[in-house]
Amino acid sequence: MAKITIHTPEEIEAMRRVGSEAADLLDFITPHVKAGVSTLALDELMLDYTVNVLKAKSACLGYNPGGNGIPYPRATCISVNNVICHGIPSEKKILKNGDIVNIDVTIEKDGFFGDNSRMFIIGKPTIAGKRLVDATWGCMWAGIEEVRPGKCFNDIGIACHNFVKPMGLSIVHEYGGHGIGRVFHGEPHVCHVPISTPTAKFEPGMIFTVEPMVNAGKRHIMDLNDGWTVVTKDRSLSAQWELEVVVTETGYDILTVSKGMPEPPTWVKGWKKPSFD
Questions:
Q1: Who's near 244: CB < 8 A, 6+ residues apart?
Q2: Which of 38, 184, 199, 211 is the most buried (most CB within 10 A)?
Q3: Opening angle at CA 26, ends 18 and 227, nearest 5
Q4: 185: phi > 0 → left, psi -120 to 50 → alpha, else beta; which?
C-alpha cells in the first residue's frame, strides 16, 4: 500500500489558506455563471483573478502528468450537462437556461495546492438536473461523514454508493478523489464506490479530496478525442462536487471553505460551516 503523507500542523494551516483562496475563486465567479456566457469567458475571468488578485497560479494550465499526453490548455475545467469531468472551456460553449455546470479549480501558491469544485444551475432548473445536483452534494457529504481515525478509505465509497443507489443514480468508477498537499495528485486514490481490496485507515494529518461524479443514467464513460473531456456514454446528465478534507484527532475538517460555499446538509454532524460575519 502506497505511503500517504501525514501533514504537520504548519502544513495543514498552509493548506487551509490556499484551500480558502481556491474556494474564494469559486465565490468570485458565481455571479458571472449565467445564460449567454461562454465557458471560455468564465475561464479567462478566473485566470485573471487567480494571477492578479490571489497572486497564485493555475495548476491546471499546461498540466501534463507523465509528459506523454496533451497539456491541458485552460486554467479551469468547466463541465456542462453530460460532461463528467475535464470539460475544456471554449468560446463556442455558451451556457443556456437549464444547464447544470461543474466548475473545477486548482490553484498553487507558496508550494501548496488548493482544489475544489462546485455545481451551478443556469436559470430555471430542470427537475432532473436539480435532483442530480442535490443528490451529488449529499453523496459527497455522506462520504465525508465517514472520515475519522479508526475507519478506512473504503468507508467513503460504501457511504457514497449507499446514498445514491436508492435514487437510481450511478457513480463513475474510473475517477475519484486524491491526496493533495505539496503535490496536486498524491496518494491515496479515493474511490467513491466500494472496493474489495484493503484500503488505508484514516490518520490525523492526511489531506485528500472527496469528489464523487454521479450520473443520472449508467456509470459508463466515454473519452472525447481532445485528450481530456470525459462524457457519459449514455448521454445522461452528470454532476460533481469537490471539497478538501483533513483528518483530525476526532474526525475531519474542511479546508476549502469560503463565505459563498453552500451549507452542508442538515444531517451532517461532523462539521459546521464557520461564520464569516
A1: 15, 19, 114, 115, 116, 180, 207, 208, 209, 254, 255, 256
A2: 211
A3: 90
A4: beta
CA distance 187 to 4: 5
Give mean pLDDT, residues 114-137. 97
Per-residue pLDDT at 277 exceeds 80: no
Cα–Cα distances in angstroms (integers) from residue 239 to residues 20, 104, 193, in the given order: 22, 11, 16
pLDDT digits (tens, 9 = 90+) for 106-125: 999 999 999 999 999 999 99
**88 and 228 in contact (C-beta within 8 Å)?**
yes
* Cα torsion angle, 124, 164, 251, 23, sign: negative
Give the dihedral of Cα atoms 150, 268, 261, 38; nearest 10 deg: 90
- Burial class of residue 211 in the structure, from the number of CB atoms within 10 Å of its CB (0-12 exposed, 13-18 middle, 19+ buried): buried
Per-residue pLDDT at 2? 75
Percent over 90 (pLDDT), the chain: 96
Write the single-letter amino acid at 234.
D
